[in-house]
Amino acid sequence: MSQDVADLYCKIDQQRDIPIDAEFCCSAGEVLAVVGPSGGGKSTLLRMIAGLTKPERGEIRHGDCQWFNSETHQYLSPQQRHLGYVPQHFGLFPNMTALENVVAALDHIPKSQRQSRAKDWLERVNLHGLPDRLPANLSGGQRQRVALARALAREPSILLLDEPFSAVDRETRERLYLELARLKEQLSIPVIMVTHDLNEALLLADRMILISQGKLLQQGTPREVLTRPRNEAVAKQMGLRNMFDAHVVAQEEDRQITWLKFGEHLIASTYFDSLDVGTKVRWVIPNQGIRFNSITKGRLCRSFNKLNITIASTLAMGETMRIVASIKGVKHHLNAEVPLHLAQKLGLAPGMETEVALKSELIHILER
Amino acid sequence: MVPLVLPPTVIGYYLLVGLGSQSWLGQLLENLLGQQLVFHFSGLVVASILVNIPFAIQPIQRAFEAVPEEVRDAGACCGMSPLKVLFRIELPMVWPGVLTALVLCFSHVLGEFGVVLMMGGNIAGETKTIAISIYDSVQAFDFASAGQMSLVLLLFAITALALTTSLSRRLGGMNVSRRR
């Protein structure tokens, strides 16, 4: 592809209508997921990058080219920004066939080459043999592919995807994940993908920004944000349900461990240097840090903390079992999701007293 | 939108007074066109346009409102100018709405009575329409002629209604498929 390869820098400060306060960068070749609850301003942010909505203040820069700068009153239209945009419901032109939809985006190349180039792009997104179909006669997944082909056919400077998988069924979505993951390797432009689904971000994004009520709460790799949420608001947005209070009882700088007194338990967490002994803290652990089988199998190693629990309730949900358990000496319950086959193997049932292991490196102390 | 709620006779009265030779506008138009508009076929055309504009605007407006914003956005991001989006995407999408408006207007004009009588009078060969002819025939107890002319207008109205319903359904169907 012959795209103009450059990073995208975006800083938006808007107070009126839909407030947005965000500053981030998306490097060329990187997929950045914009994650957050519905109505949080994600799509508005994407529209601002596309030039479809003018922000109040800020700067949007692609490489050295200023797309928007409130200080210098610079503002480029979507046509001038030369970008690829896939709206939530794909925005296909209903009066045009799949091929014509792609051709419509090719006004930057000579007319004689447009048909063949459009056909090439439809092939590249695995839409074979359907160029003459109207969007109304295509399935959700096929429409998504046409919209993606149309966006990429422009050889855009950046690619913007607004909830690209929300309008397709689960099976199609799984297939499209794979296709986008493959396509990602061929793209050397910044790709910004809006999604409210955290799993999509974990699967496809190199980095993510978390937005809620227009405010950027945290940015980093999806794993970083999931395992090292900055504060309680981020932890909640990331769906972390296990948040507990504890006291710092010791700091071991050489072993990089912060010891916490949690109910009757003493647990080791990742080292947090700014905390004094005696400080009250809030800590969090993602589901993958909770192990049910390590202790019974005798495989508990030093990086795990042992916790005595009593299972309060279980709920089978598809292939997993949701477990709520009380912890000895602690008011709050522990929530965990265990693969159903493992739960059955271990005989996990309400009333059962057992031990779980918490992985030290996944215990994270939240900022106050 | 005022013509939608005003009685046709009242609209006709104001047009008669406003465009008549006694008014400054009527005199100005008479000087420009070389003939007066009232009691003349051209006056009926002007009056029909003025009265029927709201009937045309509503279906056209509805048709444009039915075009999803995403489609316009996608057009802009495909490099199309707003004018190009209008001609290449929006107009092909809204044509059933525009045609519905034209059919509605034409059938409405054909049956117009109050405005036509006030503005054009009842001059045979100049401003006498079918609707007025029906009225004249009834006044002269010629029910056979009135019945025949009424049947023509009735058939025309049914055809127009069938056409507009079919076009509206087509437009509605397009919107549903777009949102699926």
From TrEMBL, chain A:
| One GO location term (cellular component) | membrane
* Alphabetical keyword list: ATP-binding, Cell membrane, Ion transport, Iron, Iron transport, Membrane, Nucleotide-binding, Transport
Entry keyword annotation includes Flavoprotein? no
Q: What SUPFAM superfamilies is this protein classified in? A: MOP-like, P-loop containing nucleoside triphosphate hydrolases
Pfam families in the record, alphabetically?
ABC_tran
Q: Which domain of life is it from?
A: Bacteria
The cross-references to InterPro entries, in alphabetical order and at most eight, read: AAA+_ATPase, ABC_SmlMolc_Importer, ABC_transporter-like_ATP-bd, ABC_transporter-like_CS, ABC_transpr_FbpC, Mo/tungstate-bd_C_term_dom, P-loop_NTPase
GO MF terms here are:
ABC-type ferric iron transporter activity; ATP binding; ATP hydrolysis activity
The protein's matches in PROSITE patterns, at most eight in alphabetical order, are given as:
ABC_TRANSPORTER_1, ABC_TRANSPORTER_2
The ABC transporter domain covers: 3-238
The cross-references to PANTHER family, in alphabetical order and at most eight, read:
SPERMIDINE/PUTRESCINE IMPORT ATP-BINDING PROTEIN POTA (PTHR42781), SPERMIDINE_PUTRESCINE IMPORT ATP-BINDING PROTEIN POTA (PTHR42781:SF4)
The protein's name: ABC transporter
List the lineage, top down: Bacteria, Pseudomonadati, Pseudomonadota, Gammaproteobacteria, Alteromonadales
